[in-house]
């Protein structure tokens, strides 16, 4: 399986329309790949909160990002994880929503981010929380969806594995000041779930926040197959999907999970 992570630079100086056109062109240039992944909230910027209301769009054929990414996936004949967009639903609520398209450009999966960053500000204040664990069946393996801050919550990733996930796609807009934590958590999720992880982070600076870059392709042993620098680039790697079944057979740790562990003092 050949994968490419498009580590876009997201800047306040570039309009959403211009960045959307540029991203679509980069995806179209990945013909021959199997999977392409974009970062989190690359149209509006993950830290440009004031732009979210005006940049929000429906997840339908009326949405400009959906139209552009569907056409780009179809043109390149790739599975496209188009990162996330600010979704506005029919009731006006905002969500941080990931979109996955198949090789024909059909929308095959949408994941509303469950864990919202910001505590009492930013995403946590502006956006509603998703509730559903989402996987997408592909001919390459079951694709599980998570986004950025979700990395800090291993329960979600175990739920994704329980749902059959073999490949984890994680778009992000991780801050540069916590780059090492990003790297540790991405590798930990790969080892913990014995899955391939495709972690695509934004580059550049917007909303006053420098992005980490450092996108990663990690195999189920936790080995980094490819790693990006801090600037915009396209990171491409060859991934052996047979490794997922091999490690799960050779080191079957997932079957040794003990789910009913009582908290200290429980039952006294």
Question: In a nutshell, what does this entry contain?
Answer:
The protein is of the alpha/beta class and 268 residues long. Helix content is 25%, strand content 26%.
The count of helical stretches stands at 7
Q: Architecture, according to CATH?
A: 4-Layer Sandwich
Shape: globular
**Main sheet overview:** 6 strands, mixed
Tally the structural domains: 1
Instruction: Give the full name of the CATH homologous superfamily.
Output: Carbon-nitrogen hydrolase
The rounded Rg comes to 18 Å
User: What class do helices, strands and sheet pairing give?
Assistant: alpha/beta
Report the CATH C-level class.
Alpha Beta
> What fold name goes in the CATH topology slot?
Nitrilase/N-carbamoyl-D-aminoacid amidohydrolase
Q: Tell me the span between the first and last alpha carbons.
A: 52 Å
The arrangement of helices and strands along the chain is EHEHHEEEHEEHEHEEEEEEH
| Helix content estimate | 25-40%
Count the E strands: 14
**Biggest β-sheet: strands ordered side by side in the sheet:** 5-4-3-2-1-14
Strand content: 25-35%
Q: Mean pLDDT across all residues, rounded? A: 95
Domain CN hydrolase: 1-241
Protein name: Hydrolase
Keywords: Hydrolase
GO molecular function: hydrolase activity
What does the model show?
By secondary structure, this protein is of the alpha/beta class. The chain has one domain: Nitrilase/N-carbamoyl-D-aminoacid amidohydrolase, CATH 3.60.110.10. It has helices at 16-28, 52-55, 64-76, 122-126, 154-162, 179-193, 242-250; strands at 2-7, 35-37, 79-88, 94-101, 107-112, 135-138, 141-145, 167-172, 196-201, 205-206, 209-210, 216-218, 224-227, 233-238. A hairpin with a 5-residue loop joins strand 4 (94-101) and strand 5. The radius of gyration is 18 Å and the shape is globular. The model has no long low-confidence stretch (mean pLDDT 95).
